[in-house]
Amino acid sequence: MKEIIPKIYKLETQEERLNFFENLWSTDLFKIFIRSENPVVQMIKRNYIKYPRYYYYMQDRDKERAAFTSWYNVLSLKKYENSYIQDLYYFHELTHIATMTYEPDLDFKSWCIKMRNNEVLASMNSEVLIYFYIPEYRQYTFKEEIWVDRFLNKDYYKSLANQDLAQLAIDLTSKRANAYENPKDAVEQILSDFRQFSHLYYNVWKKHYVELETVLRNFYKGDVVGFETFLQKNQSKSGILFKDKVEKHQKNYIKRNKLRPNY
Ligand SMILES: [Zn+2]
Prior knowledge:
By secondary structure, the protein is α+β, with helices and mostly antiparallel strands. It has one domain (2-255). The protein is built from 13 helices and 4 strands. A hairpin with a 2-residue loop joins β1 (2-5) and β2 (8-11). The longest helix is centred in the middle third of the chain and has 26 residues, at 108-133. Residues 92, 96, 119, 122, 262 line the site of zinc ion (ZN).
């Protein structure tokens, strides 16, 4: 891997990407999981190694926590005290990278919906389905109740996890959509609040999302140089990408610091 611009490293070959993907994980449970036949993790791996990928060492974790670099194909490396939560973070971000679509023609409202739907995909993977993929994982993560707890011990969902992962995803994504739109209790309210918070991020990008979506769409058609030039043009002296946007959204974050961080 090479540092293409300060603090941003490129995984140029498929072999480098596979190696990076396989060595990113801290917990034994995740190390086993990513080598399993699970169709979702296999899809993420296939997609991840297909194109040039980039990663970045966060310079200031507090300030940059709201950066969402995965949207533009740069994985921010972060250390968490709890390595099980750290692996969830990477699973979440890699889901974004593997499934993000780029549609510069969308008007702002439609673009927000595109972004929101991608957030649902990543969250379903790292906050819900993962606990069915690896049932023993839950005991190592959050002490407080999380949304998935209300389904984990129900026979119906447990049997779907063994027999029909697609149906499990369909059922729980539908329930999750309801929780976002029409929260019924405090746990669902957290999900709904987080969605509103994400909209503040989209607002920060309102004037510039078309440019970014265009550059990324061209990247996936082969214009790697155009993409790297774009990153370089938008990197601050300290290495932060799109620093003005990061700082703006950080202010939103401070205002809403009661929310749990995105993991
Ligand atoms: Zn996300």
